[in-house]
Amino acid sequence: MTDRITKSIELRAPVERVWRALTDPTEFGTWFRVRLEGPFVPGQLSRGRITHPGYEHVVWEARVVAMDEPRLFSFTWHPYAVDPAVDYSQETPTLVEFRLAPTAAGTRLVIVESGFGALPAHRRAEALRMNQGGWEQQIRNIRAHVES
Questions:
Q1: Which of 30, 44, 63, 113 has the fewest CB atoms within 10 Å of its CB?
Q2: pTM (2 decimals)?
Q3: What is the predicted pLDDT for the residue at 1?
Q4: Are 120 and 91 in contact (CB under 8 A)?
């Protein structure tokens, strides 16, 4: 089993546009389907409510690690933490990195989520599988958001 998920896409939008879609809380919330309570701040916890149908009960939380404009936005979170009866806070979170690079057509966006190997064994495979599918959807969501 792998310890990471990697997704890469070329977007027909300038780096500055993609950066804004990733780091502005309203824009991020639109394509990621989460209503955030405030801005992203390195070192701080960001919280919100998932707006994707069927997951509205989920509180989204991530700790911002880096905002190196316009190249890297990263955060840690507890992957596939969707059961409100479970306390995920003692688990080691995974690291999500959004890396941007200019291309002739716009922007290369690479998303890497790593650290699945540190998850409890009973959750590891399901979290990896669900987030693999989740990132496939989010790649489509951000494309539609920045190319429209």
A1: 44
A2: 0.96
A3: 60
A4: yes
